[in-house]
Amino acid sequence: MKHISDHDKMDKTRKRIAVLAIVMAFITLNIWFVAMITPGWFIVSWKYIDPLMTHKDSKYMRDLMKFSSDSLKTVTVDVEMSIWYCSICLQDTCVQVSYQELNREALLMKRAEKSKSPFPYLIDIQVWSILAIIFCLCSLTLLVFNFGNACRIRAGGITMFVAALFEIVLLLRMIIANVPVAEAVNMEVKTAYSIILSGIGLVFSFLVTFLCKILYSKYVQQVPPSTSAHFAIIQESD
User: Is 235 part of any domain?
Assistant: First the structure.
C-alpha cells in the first residue's frame, strides 16, 4: 500500500510538472508571436527644420538661427520598425510600408538602378523568428500529446531549446542594431518593447526546457512494480 501511495504521489508530481511546462510553452509561443508582429524592435525619433524653409539663402538661415529653437518650425519624425514592415509618422500622419517599398522609393530618389539598397530587407531575421515560432509550436504539441511517453517529453525539451537558440540570435542581431543609433546625437532612441517581449519569452523557454529535463528524469528513474518483480524472479532463479 505504501508503494502504491508513493506511486500515486509520483504521478501527481509528474502531472503538475507537465501542466506547468505546457502552460509556460503556451505563454512563450504567444509572447514570441506578439513580439514578431509588433513594430517595437527599433524605435527612433528626430526633429528637423521644415523643408519649406530650406529654399531660403544661407544668410536668412543664419539670421533665423539666432532666435531660440522654439521659434523654428520643426517637424518630428517617428520611426518604428517591425521585422516585417516599418511605421513612419510625420507629425500626426503615419504610414506603414514594407522594406521592399522603402528600397524602391530610395532607389527612385537616387535615380540609380544598380545602387545598393539603403534599407535592409531583414530576411535573415524573419527566418530566425519564424523558425523560433515553429520549433516552439512543435515543443508545445509534443508536450500536450506526450501520453506519458518519456521520449516525447525529451523531444519537447530539445525543440524548445532549439527555438530559444534561434530567438537568442534574433535578439543579439536587433540589440546590436540599436547600439549605434543610440549613440547618435540628433536621434532619440525609445524603448524597444518587442526586444523586451522576446527576452521575457526567452526566459520562459528556458524554464520549459528545465521542466522537461526534470520530467524526463522522473519518468526514466521510475521502475514499474511489475518490472521490479520480474527482476526479483530472475535473480532468485539464478
Answer: no
